[in-house]
Design a protein that fits this description.
Elements lengths: L1 E6 L12 H9 L5 E6 L6 H12 L3 E5 L11 H18 L4 E4 L1 H5 L1 H8 L3 E3 L6 H10 L11 E5 L2 E4 L23 H5 L2 E4 L2 E2 L10 H5 L4 E2 L2 H12 L6 E4 L8 H14 L5 E5 L6 H9 L2 E9 L3 H6 L6 H13 L4 E7 L6 H14 L3 E6 L9 H21 L17 H9 L20 H10 L1
Parallel strand pairs: 1-2, 1-3, 3-4, 4-5, 8-11, 11-12, 12-13, 13-14, 14-15
Antiparallel strand pairs: 5-6, 6-7, 9-10
The structure holds cobalamin and iron/sulfur cluster.
């Protein structure tokens, strides 16, 4: 069969990210199928580019990857969905073949997106086994769909969604993503590669969609194999930083330590950033991370109110956030905390408590977001209702932003805009840019040294 893999993502903030999931799908396609990879990220006219590539290639099936259903400040979900609708129309006008959707964004609400966008098929969650199985079924003339886990399709206009497989993919069988198809502009624009050390998160935070995509059981890769892959990334002249895309790098903690130890033993040089949870973070891990080249930790702290953390079922307290921050200073690991203001059930006192907490915590960096429910993209009433609270929160943030000059408020464009980021890149700054908003690069006192001294006094 002739397979066209299309990455629809065009989000440029906080930086362009390689279509990592689709690279795994590309690698999983058996060699007997011909394929092309169409990445719309840098196209001036994505629909025209898509139509022309498809007409030239003449695929038998088009696989359309949907990474995000939100834009980066979470304000433009309906635009993103409309954009994908237009891509599907473009594909149908160019060629009459089955369209298969998948990807992290699609997996968040597959049934709703199937109904709204009407592709022929969808696969939610990881697709290294399901996608080749679907190609096989299509090749056979369209039989055996029932046996493919997490496949969504229409039969006589009715949506049929197969249930998940009893187990997820065994990480020992995971093949490397096909990096040969990456557009070189990702390297000239950001130079950030992606690496995955495990899939799955065992926690149950109330709003979180990650376990829907990757499952709840942490499936870890062999540290030696991970560092082999990292070493290959280091050899690429355009790669200057790696983002470890695991939902949480430090759970299980033992595995994170083993990965860091392997990096230290093999002397890897590439700086990296990862998501860290205050649970499962200790001095030994902080020390290993520092020595293994960690340049920054992104922390989903979410709230400065213990009652809200409990309601969100985060499993940690504000004291554990403080503990993480103390270790971050001690081991010189810049920490960037995301806070969600106005989650369901929160009132203004809670929002105020979180703002006070952030000022008192004084992390290296913080990103303040007014909460957006993914379902707002599909439910206009919910969106209207939520917007009222969100607008009030943003008004408060606008009035008080001078109190937190280092923090980013994406919805207000504070320390978060294409212009700022491109200026920082032009100055040669690398990695996630929050790492440069404070410190010498921004013309300020080196935060880490200053803070470390403070702790030791
Ligand atoms: C790491 C990460 C980031 C990092 C990325 C760093 C990097 N260098 O890549 C950073 C912090 C920069 C980031 C930013 C954003 N992110 Co993010 N991110 C993630 C995370 C944790 C992992 C993504 C990943 O790479 N996974 C590993 C790959 C291998 O898995 P995968 O992409 O899911 O692919 C598998 C399947 O989905 C499927 N598949 C993938 N493509 C296709 C295509 C087809 C046709 C098929 C059939 C199957 C298929 O098979 C793949 C292999 O098994 C996910 C959450 C999660 N746990 O999935 C959120 C997630 C993807 N991000 C999300 C969002 C919203 C964003 C931002 C818009 C938000 C923001 N303000 O930061 C930006 C957008 C950035 C951009 N330019 O597009 C959302 C997207 C859904 C949504 N709600 O819109 C997610 C799902 C988290 C969430 N909130 O639910 N992100
Ligand atoms: S720790 Fe992170 S990935 Fe895991 S459930 Fe909570 S928010 Fe989701």
């Amino acid at each position: 069969m002739r397979v066209a893999l299309v990455s629809g993502n065009r989000e440029k903030l906080p930086y362009v990210v390689i279509p990592f999931g689709l690279l795994y799908v590309a690698a999983s396609i058996p060699d007997r199928h011909d394929r092309i990879f169409v990445d719309l990220c840098f196209e001036d006219d994505p629909k025209a580019a898509l139509a022309s590539r498809l007409s030239e290639f003449g695929p038998d099936v088009v696989a359309l990857g949907m990474r995000n259903i939100q834009n980066s400040d979470y304000s433009g979900s309906s635009n993103v969905i409309q954009y994908y609708k237009e891509l599907i129309d473009t594909i149908r006008e160019a060629i009459d073949v089955p369209i298969v959707m998948g990807g992290a964004g699609f997996s968040v609400m597959p049934a709703e997106l199937m109904e709204k966008l009407r592709p022929d098929f969808g696969i939610s969650g990881e697709a290294e086994e399901a996608f080749p199985a679907l190609l096989e079924a299509l090749d056979r003339g369209g039989s055996g769909f029932d046996a493919i886990p997490c496949l969504h399709r229409f039969e006589e206009g009715r949506l049929i969604s197969n249930s998940a497989a009893p187990g997820f993919l065994d990480m020992r069988k995971l093949i490397r993503p096909d990096r040969s198809v990456i557009d070189p502009r990702y390297f000239s624009e950001s130079g950030i590669e992606s690496l995955q050390t495990k899939r799955g998160c065992p926690l149950r935070c109330d709003y979180c969609t990650y376990p829907i995509i990757e499952g709840r059981i942490g499936r870890t890769r062999d540290p030696e194999d991970i560092v082999d892959e990292l070493e290959r990334l280091s050899a690429h002249p355009g790669v200057n930083h790696v983002f470890i895309v695991d939902s949480v790098f430090n759970l299980p903690r033992k595995h994170a330590k083993a990965v860091c130890q392997e990096m230290i033993d093999r002397g890897t040089r590439l700086p990296w950033t990862c998501y860290i949870n205050p649970l499962g973070f200790d001095a030994e891990l902080a020390d290993l991370m520092r020595r293994a080249g960690c340049a920054g930790m992104e922390v989903g702290s979410d709230s400065g109110s213990d009652a809200i953390l409990k309601r969100l079922r985060k499993g940690f307290s504000t004291e554990q956030i403080r503990n993480l921050h103390r270790l971050a200073i001690e081991y010189e690991l810049p920490d960037c905390h995301t806070f969600l203001l106005g989650t369901p059930g929160e009132d203004f006192d809670d929002v105020r408590r979180t703002l006070d907490f952030i000022v008192d915590l004084d992390p290296f960096s913080a990103i303040l977001m007014a909460w957006v429910d993914d379902y707002e993209a599909l439910d206009a009433d919910l969106a209207r209702e939520r917007r009222v609270l969100r607008d009030k929160i943003l008004e408060v943030l606008d009035a008080e932003k001078h109190k937190f000059p280092w923090w980013s408020i994406p919805s207000l464009g504070v320390n978060y805009s294409a212009e700022l980021f491109s200026t920082l890149r032009e100055h040669g700054l690398r990695g996630p840019l929050w790492q440069h908003l404070r410190g010498p690069a921004a013309g300020q006192t080196p935060h880490r040294r200053r803070r470390r001294t403070a702790v030791r006094q």
